[in-house]
Amino acid sequence: MKKHILKICLTIVIALTVLGAYIAFKPEPKTIGDLMESYENPGMRIKIRSPFSGTVLVAKKGEIIFEEAYGEEDRVKKVPNTIDTKYGIGSVTKQFTSMLIMQLVEENKIKLHDTINKYLPYLPAEKANHITIHQLLSHTSGLPHYTGLQAIGVSLKDFGNTRYSPKALAELIGKTHLVNKPGSTYYYSSFGYDILGVILEEVSGKSFAELLDEKIVSPLKLKNTGFGTNQYISKELAKGYSYREVYGWDWWTSEHGGKTTEAPFRDQSTAYAAGGMHSTVKDLFIWSQAVKSHKLLSPELTKVMLTPNMHGHCYGWVRNWDDIIEKNINVRLYGHGGALTGNSAFIAMYDDETTIIYLSNRSNLRAEEILHQIYLRANNLKDEYSLKGYPDRSSYKTFKEAGGMYTLQDYFNRLSEYSGYKVNPSNSTMYGVMKIHLEAGKIKVADSLKTAFFNSYNPDENTLNQFGYGFLYSDNPNYALEFFKENTVKHSQSSNAWDSLGEAYLTYKDYEKAVICYRKAVALGEKVAHKSLKLYKENLQKAENKLKD
Length: 549
Known about the structure:
Elements: H1 2-25, H2 32-40, H3 45-48, E1 54-60, E2 63-70, E3 72-74, E4 79-80, E5 87-88, H4 93-106, H5 125-128, H6 133-137, H7 156-160, H8 166-175, H9 190-204, H10 208-220, H11 230-236, E6 241-245, E7 258-262, H12 268-275, E8 278-279, H13 281-292, H14 299-305, E9 318-319, H15 322-325, E10 333-340, E11 343-350, E12 354-360, H16 367-378, H17 396-401, H18 404-419, H19 427-439, H20 443-456, H21 461-472, H22 481-490, H23 495-507, H24 511-528, H25 533-548
Antiparallel strand pairs: 1-2, 1-12, 3-4, 5-8, 6-7, 9-10, 10-11, 11-12
């Protein structure tokens, strides 16, 4: 019996070794078709986070040079994707919303520097009197993204399952807390584009779907593009799926080394003008050509629409997305991605007249890798144009040997120059660099990084919480306190921020301060009937009991 088990184990090891060797030494795909087939199959899965399922279109100088479909639009019924399969396009919707706004600007029905109280007077004055149309379009309004719902006691699950009228959605957004002073800095916000959708309806007297059809879909003769009902989406679009890698024994029952599940339902009224549209790659190609040829908007206003603002964001487009520039410093482009649970999308218009569009019914694809690799093959280029000099930060020793902070800053200075806007190291990079300096006892450097992070990054509530908990349960737990404190300063009306600070004080056994924070969390939670109110009260009771002992 033991020999039999040993033989099975040996067979497994050999099989894994052969598979690993096959993946490691498999020839690099030469054509776009070879590349996409490698993405569809397990060989290059890890590079894009999920096996690819969807459609791809590539054009050069207005002529389509590649279009193909991969995977299935319905995994249960085994219906294959085709080039005409319709997908949710997520935030690519923002391009269409921006165009509709600019068309009404051209008709003198909207002005870019009008404040939104002119159109939606029922919204709270502290927002409506200070936020402009331009700020909504450029993500500088100070409105939060979907994570802003948490602070007012609305879970993302409940939000996605609720039907809202446009006015009700605007009123819900009006209850969220500003993350910044309007106009002061960039902060990506789908809620800003939802407000634009409500304004479009208010000004035109038509629904978003009707206006979209009248001003864009019909003039361009788009056959498979629009904003559909829940029923239409469920019947006519590819079903969305999420994928996650698995390990250990689960690997043997997995498909391509992962588990695929159907995406949960989301009411269309919550995706709305920020992310609720559907389309095909062919329709989006027609759309991209229309934008470039000024078929829908004058050259003057198209230039305004495509002018970069903070962080490279134009109106509905991004100029020179830094993740793409980092991989090829020679390219320049306009693009935007879209992501819904179960769907991914991207449209990219390069300055050399290469256009790449993909739509997928898989979540969480690495758009920058897909676009980069397709672009190389579309233009017969080698992968040798990436930005060099990123320092190894696996440990303090290797980081210092690679040049340390000077080299890191130089790398991002050069990336900023190529991108055309200021690019900072990512949140995860900042956390990692702080961590290795703390572990090396370089407290002053860690403190300077923390100060720079607070002042230059404008971190949101979730990010500050993540950093706080990351340090709270590390070898440097005392370093967490400043992150939790900063969260209560920046988000003073968030019950969750106060609860987290209370947990930090409880961990430090400062029970008196923990009680103060938990009481604040309960009081704020009661105001909005927060879903975690019961937990806040339990935490308060725990801290009060500790204080009595």
